[in-house]
Automatic annotation (TrEMBL):
NCBIfam families: alr. It is an enzyme of class 5 (isomerase). It comes from the Bacteria. Its cofactor is pyridoxal 5'-phosphate. Coiled coil: none annotated. Residues 249-377 form the Alanine racemase C-terminal domain. Its EC number is 5.1.1.1. Catalyzes the interconversion of L-alanine and D-alanine. May also act on other amino acids. One of its GO terms (molecular function) is alanine racemase activity. The modification N6-(pyridoxal phosphate)lysine is found at residue 43. Pathway: Amino-acid biosynthesis; D-alanine biosynthesis; D-alanine from L-alanine: step 1/1. This is Alanine racemase.
Amino acid sequence: MLQTPTLSAYHPTTAEIDLAAFNENITKLKKLVKKSMLLAVIKTNAYGHGTVRIGEEAVKAGAESLGVTTVEEGALLRENGIDVPIHILSSITPEQASDVVRYELTASVFSIRLAKAISEVAVKQRKTIPVHLKLDTGLHRFGLEPHEVLSFCEVCYELPGLWWEGVYTHFSSVDEGDWETTERQFNLFIDTVTMLDEQGFNFAIRHVGGSTIAIERPDMHLDMVRPGVALFGYQPAARQRDIISLKPVMALKSNLIYVRELPPNTPVGYGGSYVTRTTKKIAVVPIGHGDGYSRALSNKGKMLIGGKRVKIIGTISLDQTLVDVTDVPDVTEGEEVILLGEQGGDEITAEDVADWMGSIVDEVVSGFTERIRRVYV
Ligand SMILES: *Cc1c(COP(=O)(O)O)cnc(C)c1O
C-alpha cells in the first residue's frame, strides 16, 4: 500500500475550493433549467476542483446525475458512496465493460462491439445497465451519424441486460454563439430521434447541451442539461454574464519564498528572457509548469501581492515563477500571493489567466496537478 505522510506544514501553494459558491452556482443553474434534469459534469477531476468532494456537493445541491469521462472517475465516485446515476460521457473500450457493469455506470454507446460487450457482462451479473445512445450531429468527434442509427438499433436495441435509457448529442459551436449551425444540429437530432421513435426505438431521456445551452437556450433543454464549467463559476461566453451571474469556486494562493534585489542589466531565469533595466526587487513564487501553471504565462501573466498587480518576469520553470515586486511596499518573504482570486479590491480570474496564455478557462483550472493541495472551505 502507498503510504501518505502526515506533515506538520505543507507546501504553500494551495487551491481553495469554495463549496458555498459551488452550491450557489448549481442552485442558480437548476433554477434556469426548471423542469429538466441537471447532470453535473465533473470530468477531469471536476475541472481541477476534486472529483469526490465536488461529486458529493453536487448531489447535495440537487444534481440528479453526474457526468465524467473515464471509468476510473466513475468507479472512484461509487467507491466513495455516490449512488446517483453516473454517466461516462466519453467513449470507452469493450474491455472496460465489466467495470461499467460492476459499478453500474451509464455508458455512452455507439459501437456494436461495446453494446455487445456490456450486454454480455450484464447478463452474466444478472443486471440491467442503463446506456445512452450517442449521436454525431456535426462535432465529428464520436457518435453515430444519423444514417447509421437505424441499422445500429436493429442490432443492439433488444440486446439483453441493456436499457436504452437515453439518447444524446453534443454541439460543435455553441460557445461561439453560432446559432445557425447549432439549430441545424438540433433539428437533425430531433428528426433522427423522432424517426427512431416511429420505428419503435424509444429513449426516455434526450439531451443535447452543456453550460451554454443551459444558460441561453431553454428551448433546447429537452429532458436533461449537462453543465460543466458554469458549475465552477465561469460562463463559457462573456455575453452570458447578463443572463446569469456566477461565482468562481477556485482561488489559488501561495506565499513568497524568496525576495532579493537585482542591479540593472541582470538576466533573470532560464535563457535570460528577461533582463532588468533598473534596480529591481524580484520574488520567487513556488509554482511552475510542473504544477500546471502554464509556461505560456512567462513574461505575460500577473499575480496579486500586497494589494498590487505584479508581473511575471522571465521563463516559468517546473517549480518556480519569478515576479517583479519592486513597486510593492515592504514586501517580505512569506507574503501572501494570489494567483486566482481577490486581494485588495482587485481580482484575477481564470478568464484573465486564460487570456494571458491564449487558452480557455477549462484548461486553466483543470490543468492544476495533484501536487497543489485542494483545501475545501
Ligand atoms: C464537457 C462536456 C459537457 C460540459 O460542457 P461545459 O461547456 O463545460 O458546460 C457537456 N456534455 C459533454 C458531452 C461534455 O463532454
